[in-house]
Amino acid sequence: MSNLKQRKKNHHLEHKDDGRKSKKPSAFYQAKPFVISLAIATVILLLILLGANIYNINLLDIYRYSVTKQSTSESKVSYPKASITSVNDYSIRGLLDDGDQSMKENKLDEALKIYSSIVKKYPSSPRGLYGLAVTFDKLAEKRRSNDYLENSIAEYQKVLNQKDVPKDLYFLAGKRLANRQTFRGWSSKAAETLEKMTQKYSNSSELWNELGVSNLIAGRNDPARQAFKQALEINPNDGYAKVHLGFIIKTIDLNNEDGIKLLQDGIQSKHPGTKDGRFYFHLGDALQRIDKNNEALEVYEEGAKIGLFLSKYQRSLYNVNSLTGQPWWTPEQTKNNKYLKLLEDNWKVIRDEGLAQMDAEKGTFLPEEENLREKGDWKQFTLYQQGKKM
To answer: What is the share, in percent, of the chain residues with pLDDT greater than 70?
Structure first.
């Protein structure tokens, strides 16, 4: 009897177990969600591949870009040239650094090959174009070649035309481009370049100053004045802007008092670019014009002490080192006694000939244009102006 009950109990347990097993899903149904997901993923991948083929998209490039972007954000910070290296340039930084090293070692032909190769393969590489521009720039100086100079100008311009140029690199390339354009004699183009840069870096007093100088060289005095004023709005203590604005006010406006104040402040700042014979000369000249002769001589003497003038009496801005210079000469010292005697004996004839040419209607002399006159009537006959025959 007990055996029968035990068998029934076991049978009941087996029946319950069978019942549970019958409710468990089969292997197919268990794998079905995975199969469906795999199928969907396959379809999506096929669509991506089809789209990539239609639109000529390189998926490997997309992958490389995403990986490069991720790795760049993680490791670019420690790269010494990170501030001038774009995301894409970071992936070829080894090649770019090789070019930089060759240029640093003055192996310019080797650097030219490296950068030319980079630009050929990566025509939109900002650092590649910049490296090529600098190499041409150095070759132009070494070989005194305008062809190389113009090549460098063209490459610097290409840097500015790229879309992903790092801000620091754009600044370097733009400044040097304007400098090379000025050196080439293209002052108007240099001013255009700097105009664009001041729009991008409107708070840079340095760029406003360079724009002012470019306009001065090009003979555009009013735009130059405004550029220097803008520099002083940004930095009221900018000595470089002060000496240039003082120069304009003294020589163009003929305002000696205001010119003196700016020239003095600028020179005393000792900022780079203020130690220039032109500013010392015009400060002294302005002081003389308001009868402050002793102060003027002190300015000239200071200029002579720092090597801007041969002496306080010899204020020529251009001197030849191999020639002897002194403020006063005796006829014997000049070794031209005979010719000096001719001048001495015929000075009245020379005077009359000169006066005849100063006739307002028939003469060829015009009022002098450099504001050299303190009093009286000074006229000049201009042969060349800014390198052009008049």
So the answer is: 80
